[in-house]
Write a structure and sequence with these properties.
The protein is an alpha/beta fold and 230 residues long. The protein has one domain: Alanine racemase (TIM Barrel). It has 9 helices and 8 strands. The strands form 2 sheets. The chain has a 6-stranded parallel sheet with strand order 2-3-4-5-6-7. The chain has a two-stranded parallel ribbon with strand order 1-8. The longest helix has 21 residues, at 4-24. It is globular, with a radius of gyration of 17 Å. It binds pyridoxal-5'-phosphate. The site of pyridoxal-5'-phosphate (PLP) has 14 residues, from strand 8 and helix 9. Residues 2-227 form the Alanine racemase N-terminal domain. The modification N6-(pyridoxal phosphate)lysine is found at residue 39. One of its GO terms (molecular function) is pyridoxal phosphate binding.
């Protein structure tokens, strides 16, 4: 069971650290949102977080969204998909999610679009770009981004709002920060091609101050809010 008082303390501490990182970077704290990542934690944890005023939650598995949405059908939750998505999950995503931050290929865009059209819905999406060197990290190659954004214009149900990335897992701050910097620079380059991509989702519990220094508009925080995952 989640301890509500402990959760409230964690949340306040995270928001304070985010605000401090903004001020250190000369940025307005109002320009950086926190996406609480509730993956592996149950509906009771989400409910406790909602009591603190939180409404959007990041999840990396569609099955978990299904289970939690069923247990929380009496409240209005915005589920944000942040993990690798299989195309055969598009139907559930179109039905349950308010946003997908891990859009990384055209067949997924195609599947989401047809499901969304059938439901008469649309979805905010961020394109996940691979800025880390690890082979295991998913995302679109940076050099493929401009053409990909052009192709996405064919899917009016997908409202492209920005970019998302996961940095390299490294002790070397310079290397981590280079991933975040690359995402910002890609965004700036694409803006000159007429793609407005206001949102940059980057930074997690261990590296969010660096992401904020490089221009994150949203940090995805799991462990520092909900505790360790087992
Ligand atoms: C789990 C996860 C996070 C949150 O990670 P923490 O280190 O627990 O803050 C952020 N982004 C993605 C894509 C994740 O899968």
């Amino acid at each position: 069971m989640i301890d509500a008082a402990h959760l409230a303390e964690n949340w306040a501490a995270v928001r304070r650290r985010v605000d401090e990182a903004c001020l250190a970077a000369g940025r307005d704290p109002a320009d950086v949102a926190v996406l609480p990542v509730s993956k592996t934690f149950g509906p009771d944890a989400v409910r406790a977080a909602m009591a603190l005023g939180l409404r959007r939650f990041g999840e990396n598995k569609v099955q978990e969204i299904r289970d939690k949405a069923a247990a929380l059908s009496d409240v209005s939750v915005e589920w944000v998909v942040i993990g690798h998505l299989q195309t055969n999950k598009a139907k559930d995503v179109a039905r349950l999610a308010s946003e997908v931050q891990s859009l990384d290929r055209l067949d997924l865009a195609d599947a989401l679009h047809s499901r969304l059209q059938a439901l008469g819905r649309s979805l905010d999406v961020l394109v996940q770009v691979k800025t880390a060197r690890e082979e295991t990290k998913s995302g679109l190659s940076p050099e493929d981004l401009p053409a990909f954004l052009e192709r996405l214009r064919a899917y009016p149900t997908l409202r492209v709002r920005g970019l998302m990335t996961l940095a390299t897992l490294s002790e070397d701050e310079g290397e981590v920060r280079a991933c975040f910097r690359q995402l910002r620079e890609l965004r700036d380059q694409c803006a000159t091609d007429g793609h407005g991509l206001p949102r940059l989702s980057m930074g997690m519990s261990a590296d969010f101050p660096l992401a904020i220094a490089e221009g994150a508009t949203e940090v995805r925080i799991g462990t520092a809010i909900f505790g360790r995952r087992f």
